[in-house]
Amino acid sequence: DLDVTVMESPEVLPLSFGADIMNEGDFAQVSCIVRKGDEPLQISWSFHGSSITSDLGIITTAIGSRGSMLIISSVGHKHRGNYTCKAVNSAGVVSQSVELRVNGI
Q: Half-sphere exposure of residue 90, counting CA atoms within 13 Å on the CB side?
């Protein structure tokens, strides 16, 4: 007998900060949820293609085994740009991006 296991690659829900434009000082939060895909999953965030570092004032935290939340407690102009969530498992890699726009630019 031959056992065949089909692995399912991740599928990530669209990202949203919940507002088209944020104001300086606003609290911003976006969740990355992996709707489908075999575990274990590795979920990571990037900002303009680079890893997010703590000196930006951005916090990322896991939501169970299938999600991650990105939090900016006080939005500033340095935070404007593209944020990407990447989900990886043994079957594939998928990413979703969202743009954070800050008032006054």
A: 6
